[in-house]
Amino acid sequence: MIDRAREFDDADPLAKYRDRFDLPTDVIYLDGNSLGALPRATLARLEQVIRGEWGGGLIRSWNDADWIGAARRVGGKIAPMIGAQLHEVVACDSTSVNLFKLIAAALEMRPGRKVVLSEPGNFPTDLYMIAGLERQGLGKRKLASRESIVGALDNDVALLLLTHVHYKSGDIHDMVALTKAAHDAGALVLWDLSHSCGALPVDLNAAGADFAVGCGYKYLNGGPGAPAFAFAAERHHNTMHQPLTGWFGHNAPFDFSDDYEPAAGIDRLQCGTSPILGLAALEVGVELISEIGIDRLYAKSQALSEFFLAGLADCGLDLEGVGPSNSDERGSQLSFRHPEAYAICQALIARGVIGDFRDPDILRLGFAPAYLRFVDVAEAIRHLVEVFANEEWMRPEFQTRNAVT
Amino acid sequence: MIDRAREFDDADPLAKYRDRFDLPTDVIYLDGNSLGALPRATLARLEQVIRGEWGGGLIRSWNDADWIGAARRVGGKIAPMIGAQLHEVVACDSTSVNLFKLIAAALEMRPGRKVVLSEPGNFPTDLYMIAGLERQGLGKRKLASRESIVGALDNDVALLLLTHVHYKSGDIHDMVALTKAAHDAGALVLWDLSHSCGALPVDLNAAGADFAVGCGYKYLNGGPGAPAFAFAAERHHNTMHQPLTGWFGHNAPFDFSDDYEPAAGIDRLQCGTSPILGLAALEVGVELISEIGIDRLYAKSQALSEFFLAGLADCGLDLEGVGPSNSDERGSQLSFRHPEAYAICQALIARGVIGDFRDPDILRLGFAPAYLRFVDVAEAIRHLVEVFANEEWMRPEFQTRNAVT
């Protein structure tokens, strides 16, 4: 298997990009879907921002280093990866906060409708952000399983809120069909692209999507807790109103007037002062992923996960897969169900193979194509086979839960 | 004057701390109240976080480097500066977003009352964040001038929202008296400490304050757009509910359950994933300011601004001061009104003296005591006198407005 992996690596047009990341030599990293790896250029860029722009330029850098344009500039670099126009995306706040803004905006745009429809098992923060609006009496959460979503789109639904690629199973929703179904029912659509953006092609405008959010620290390699992004289709720019009406979303923030007046366009989705250090790191990751190109990344991620599944079969290791077996129907990850998933994950980490565990029983392995080699996948299989051969999960040290799982 | 300044610097117990900051040699920085200077330790710390924790530790650093505890750890280091208990402060999001959380929480705690009382000319984002809740039908803004605030506290007021030190005039509100007046009227109080924290003593618990927010990038030197902080008095921890119900505010975020359940205590004020790079830089600034000590900082800032005013008088430069002439009644800044304030500010910047302009006619000079020398103040006076002697503001290049003023 390792020989075949080497052949694949030799033929891989993306192989050269691994060196653009600073990866530990003793690790096989199958968790780029949770926290993307560090681009080599990030540290130098942060040094420039910290020492040059902050330390040397001080307050002048809001103009001279275009800090004031950072949220829009980084958003504009994300836009082409998700089928958006440059002026339809802004990088700001967290995914959670951006969800709140857009759920609230959508509810106001559909007066008389209060329901936000989503699916059970969606990423927690997507579901949780509805709770705050529910408590405010402004929204009402309704959950429908994947199969019954279209049927659940009745006249009460203001917004359909779905994660494009499921964080646990890797299932891909049909963005075109579901957006159309929601619109047919008079509802708006908000797509969470956290597990899509940077991993597979997304075309929001071709699907007619209304809103989207996404994460900066997964496939965009923006660093832990990187700023997120928000998309709103141009047709909504001057009619949407989000409730986090901070000064960076004001039409003329430096007039220091007492009254809020939303900025024209996407800027009204901004709220507080832009987080410049976080945006600088995110920008480096976005530029690198953009340079490699989404189509090539997606093709390689499919090849990697297919290689993994074929390798498992060759080794006779029969794990219960979760999610689609066809790589066209899943994101850049594979998930397996096992009652000892937590301890298996810990046993793999002890061997330097870093995947992650998702409660209660899912072992999730991500194949971030920008820096993962086929030899890494082959090695991961070898370790997994050994963990199973030795039943290593039974060791007590692998059973103790960490704060973050 | 310069000789007297040198004597003061020689006798200044804080003089040695200037070297803990990385300041350009050709600049006199009178804008630490807008963006604090760069601590020398920040770059090394960020290098450690980026290369070691992110690059090397990858996802493991959520546990191993205690990223998961960063918001509380940094909050706990801010707490002693503002008279809070360690478990009453969390560092997260922006000041604006934290304002929204706490305004909304307060409105829910006072059912039947909708009014958020503030003052005209408060920092814009404080006033703007009420607008979103007003539009949602949940709050109603009322503004009363400083003199009439107590009289305006009627039975409709749910929350009194004030900035402790006024961003423009430097005026300090009487936190004890106004908190008591609000409580007597059945209202809660939310203090914005953006221009206080790190500059002068604040004792939230002695005043009986309910809530507070503050900025990380001014006197705490956390870097441009640094995470902000939020305080809630312990007595409210399990009764307050804020609407930004993200997964980092959940009682058990890594259970990945569908239903939101707020964390016990201050953690329910968190929302999305903690911004680790921003928090790391903020932590360095907070540690440094904490080491110097607020009482000493405040004493020096008073001495600096008094030295400035005495120097102006000596030079016969008669500027119209805005705000209190008594340094006990103002924050760490001085403001002056002049019809050409913008161009004067630009002329000073061209000379390397960086203050700022606040619309429409205010020249604001900050005296951040951690790194400013008396000789800097003396030099600033000399430049200001020369700008006036030459009427330099009349030059066209100083009249053109930048994007950020």
What does this structure look like?
Chain A has 405 residues and is of the alpha/beta class. Chain A has 2 domains: 2-30 and 293-398, Aspartate Aminotransferase, domain 1; 43-291, Type I PLP-dependent aspartate aminotransferase-like (Major domain) (Aspartate Aminotransferase, domain 2, 3-Layer(aba) Sandwich). The first copy, chain A, has helices at 2-11, 41-57, 61-64, 70-78, 95-109, 124-135, 149-152, 175-184, 204-207, 276-292, 294-314, 341-350, 374-390, and strands spanning 28-29, 89-92, 115-118, 140-143, 157-163, 188-192, 211-214, 228-232, 320-322, 333-337, 353-354, 356-358, 362-366. In chain A, the strands form 3 sheets. The first copy, chain A, has a 7-stranded mixed sheet, sandwiched between helices. In chain A, strands 9-10-13-12 form a 4-stranded antiparallel sheet, with helices on one face. A two-stranded parallel sheet of chain A has the order 1-11. In chain A, strand 3 (115-118), helix 6 and strand 4 (140-143) form a beta-alpha-beta unit. The interface between A and B is large, with 98 and 97 residues.
